[in-house]
Amino acid sequence: MKKLKRSARLVEMTQYLLDRPHTLISLTAFAERYQSAKSSISEDLAIIKEVFEDEGIGELHTLAGAAGGVRFIPKCRKDQALRKIEDVCSMLEQPDRLLPGGYLYMTDLLGQPGLLQDLGRMFATAFADRDIDVIMTVETKGIPLAHAASQYLNVPVVIVRRDHKVTEGSVVSINYVSGSNKRIQTMSLARRALKEQSRVLIIDDFMKAGGTIQGMVDLLSEFRAIVAGVGVLVESGEVDNEERLLHDYISLARLTEVDLKTKHIAVQPGNFFQP
To answer: Which pairs count as long-range contacts for 42-49, CB under 8 Å and 24+ apart, including other chains?
Structure first.
């Protein structure tokens, strides 16, 4: 790369960091890339760090030593995230979103790039310190959420199928009991999709009793993998605590009331926003 003026270097360096979240980048690499002294690079990074933190973009962690460098950790401020999730709650309270069984229609929201970026950053903030190797979700509506989070955590996504596809090769399949309707269902994951003892973050769009997520947890045990965390966009608050199959999770929104007759829906911020 040709030598840049400092203003141009700051812009390019900022974009370079944004494109490589959770990646350790040495000062030597920056110095060689921009043909500048390490002292100048350190000053630039101090400016970027201050702006990132002041604007709620994330944190810039510095590691000292010969093998050290900087690592950008995307995060969002809770006050900014709360305002955005309150807008999501308002959209979810629209009566025409109510589906049979007390579920909500969310497909249109999960197709909005800007909203997905916001939700992905929230999940990345919630699990920034969990040392995650891979994100797992089940087809289909959890897929965009998983990819949004993976963008900021910089880890791959694996998708659990409800039926075996020949293009997946050899698979591991399990039966699980749906927490909401108590039906026995099947899910599978290709053997080569996940390394043993991987640390896995499970992401899903909606959790009622937690049967599907518990099924994914059981499936992970077949790979000797570790559940590093569970994140859901919306949890149902109408499930009794003793009926819920999962208790350790992060939710961004909580469905607190559904009246099928009047089509009244009440949604509030999830436990991610609790003190």
So the answer is: 44/6, 44/9, 44/10, 44/13, 45/13, 45/70, 47/10, 48/10, 48/13, 48/14, 48/17
